[in-house]
């Protein structure tokens, strides 16, 4: 059978959504984890949203004219891009995933991206092997946390809604702790009323664009990050990723009754700075 890779179009959304749903269901069932895609309609809607995003570039894989996989490259800051989701029809495994990944890496080079990142499901050994072969390195083990957010510990930093006047200080904090600024995401979160900042002794010591899969957080200390988490009015989506090497933070969440739903791994290629301080990555980290 002939395999062809081409740019994704709006007309492909439903077929790509069906493939994505089937792929996630297959992997989740094999390892007894909840699926990241609760329905084909959810997966299709996500494809449609990605297609409307000017920072995203989508590709599909076709075999004999039938869509059997898809992938996106998402430019979340000018110099860094994120791969995902990459999904392949369960019956179309083979070189399909590799061909799709090579297509987005070629697109990243065309866009002169300095670093590429992705979040991988570690129980999916095939994808771990593929990403490693093509140059990605494991950076952070993650755990998706679900449940009721705990109360802030005593003496926590004060938390308030973020305003656009905070962006400059937040940029400086992110640049120092993570090596990059995420101003666009922060301004969008402020406009949606989802962003907040933590202050201690009159100094801004942390911020978040929302606690959830699509939000990220940066803080000077674990205590400052705890304050941001506890002050969140809700969890956006099915949960939020916690780097498991932040043992103090993870113990606090588990001790408060929150549960780990499934593991994941942050992998990168090219430019990357080891984070300092305390942080929560977005799935687009």
Question: Which features does this protein show?
Answer:
285 residues; 34% helix; five-stranded antiparallel sheet; alpha+beta
Give the strand content.
25-35%
Percent range of helical residues: 25-40%
Number of strands: 14
Radius of gyration: 19 Å
Shape: globular
Description:
- This protein has 285 residues and is an alpha+beta fold.
- It contains 8 helices and 14 strands.
- Strand 9 and strand 10 form a beta hairpin.
- The radius of gyration is 19 Å and the shape is globular.
- The two termini are 36 Å apart.
- 41% of the residues are buried.
How would you summarize the topology of this molecule?
Blueprint: E1 3-7, H1 13-31, H2 40-52, E2 56-63, E3 66-77, E4 80-83, E5 87-88, H3 96-110, E6 115-120, H4 125-133, E7 137-146, E8 158-161, H5 167-178, H6 183-192, E9 196-200, E10 203-208, E11 217-219, H7 222-231, E12 240-243, H8 247-255, E13 259-270, E14 278-280
Parallel strand pairs: 4-6
Antiparallel strand pairs: 1-2, 2-3, 3-4, 3-5, 6-13, 7-12, 7-13, 8-9, 9-10, 10-11, 11-14
In short:
With 285 residues, this protein is α+β, with helices and mostly antiparallel strands.
């Amino acid at each position: 059978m002939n395999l062809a890779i081409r740019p994704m179009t709006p007309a492909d959304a439903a077929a790509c959504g069906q493939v994505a749903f089937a792929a996630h269901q297959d992997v989740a069932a094999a390892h007894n984890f909840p699926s990241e895609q609760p329905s084909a309609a959810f997966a299709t809607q996500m494809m449609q949203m990605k297609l409307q995003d000017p920072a995203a570039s989508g590709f599909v894989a076709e075999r004999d004219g039938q869509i059997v996989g898809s992938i996106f490259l998402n430019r979340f800051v000018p110099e860094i891009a994120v791969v995902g989701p990459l999904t392949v029809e369960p019956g179309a495994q083979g070189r399909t995933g590799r061909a799709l990944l090579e297509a987005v890496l070629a697109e990243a080079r065309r866009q002169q991206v300095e670093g590429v990142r992705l979040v991988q499901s570690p129980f999916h050994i095939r994808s771990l092997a593929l990403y490693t072969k093509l140059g990605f390195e494991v950076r952070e083990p993650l755990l998706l946390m679900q449940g009721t957010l705990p109360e802030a510990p005593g003496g926590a930093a004060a938390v308030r809604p973020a305003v656009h006047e905070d962006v400059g200080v937040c940029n400086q904090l992110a640049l120092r702790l993570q090596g990059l600024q995420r101003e666009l995401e922060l301004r969008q979160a402020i406009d949606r009323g989802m962003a907040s900042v933590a202050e201690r002794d009159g100094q801004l010591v942390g911020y978040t664009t929302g606690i959830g899969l699509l939000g990220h957080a940066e803080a000077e200390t674990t205590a400052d990050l705890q304050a941001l988490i506890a002050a969140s009015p809700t969890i956006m989506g099915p949960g939020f990723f916690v780097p498991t090497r932040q043992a103090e933070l993870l113990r606090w969440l588990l001790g408060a009754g929150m549960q780990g739903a499934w593991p994941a791994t942050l992998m990168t290629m090219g430019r990357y700075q080891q984070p300092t301080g305390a942080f929560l990555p977005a799935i687009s980290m």
